[in-house]
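User: quick one, fold this
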Amino acid sequence: MIGLFRNIYWAHLRPNDLTPQLQALLRDVREHARSLAGGYLTAWELLQDLERRVEFLRHTQCRTIFGHDDPDVRRALVASGSIIASRLCVEVATHPDRKIRQWAERMRALFHDLLNGKRVEISESGINVVVHLDINEGKREINLPKLPRIDDAAWEVHLDGPPPQTDYAGDPNRCYASISGAMWLGLTDEALQVLANKMTLEAWMERWNTLWHRNLFHVLLEPGMSAHLRQTLAYITYNMMAHQYMLLKAKLGEPPMDTTMNTWAAVLQHISHGGLARTFLVGPSLRLLGAMHFELGERTGECPNSALDESILATFTRVSECDLAQLETRIRKHVTKVPVRRLLH
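Assistant:
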């Protein structure tokens, strides 16, 4: 808990920003969630201009509502989002643009409602949902539209040329280092326990797989993600995979080749460096459920409507590289009524 309050004081937050309700909430969540809350507050302080702070608060809202984090992380995000929204309201109180002031107030009201267990209605990226968050348990209830079946859906990916040799860890991406570090720091500590035979490799791998699926969702599918934050999370997830490989090698010798891991590792490295990566979620009968392109960290295209369904995480285990022309031809043969070329752009 000391680390959390050190982050809060370092971020120059006034003591009355941390209300008794927020203090009780943050004491109740596990350490990894408290670390993430501190990481969000640290990132907020490092983002100096208003535009990026507004963008960051929007991301915090989207991750809280649409993300597939564990319940403790969701609760911690409500706490950090509430503090950040309140701080933004103070910052823009005298701003000449009334729309910015009103938006900040709406964000503060939204997080206040989430903190008090009220239902909230939100529209993001063409998705309208009503959400109820049990702040004591971190469980999310969300009214979803009828979603397409994704049980047999698989990803096809294509990387255009070598990624640019950019400094993905440099400014402004370093502003988010506190978030990306907090998202997997606990796993590195547990890896040492595995090497010391104090934790089984199977238990560590189960936790690693859960976190890897969630991080891949953050990078690929979560709405409200800024380009720089996406590059940072892609880079840290790529390094998670390298870390997993080294641990398996230390415990088992040379691990068997895993084409799924190798394919996603290449995609994540490409995105982190700002390269052009094209991803397609293809359902049964070659129905195109989503087509998203990533370049310089920006995402364009059509996100799958089923992104709010947690079962979409399982689709990440089904991935292969593809040739764009061949993929388009295959889809056109099976689904002639779909304007494939438009969806692939």
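User: anything notable?
Assistant: Residues 8-12, 336-345 have pLDDT under 50 and may be disordered.
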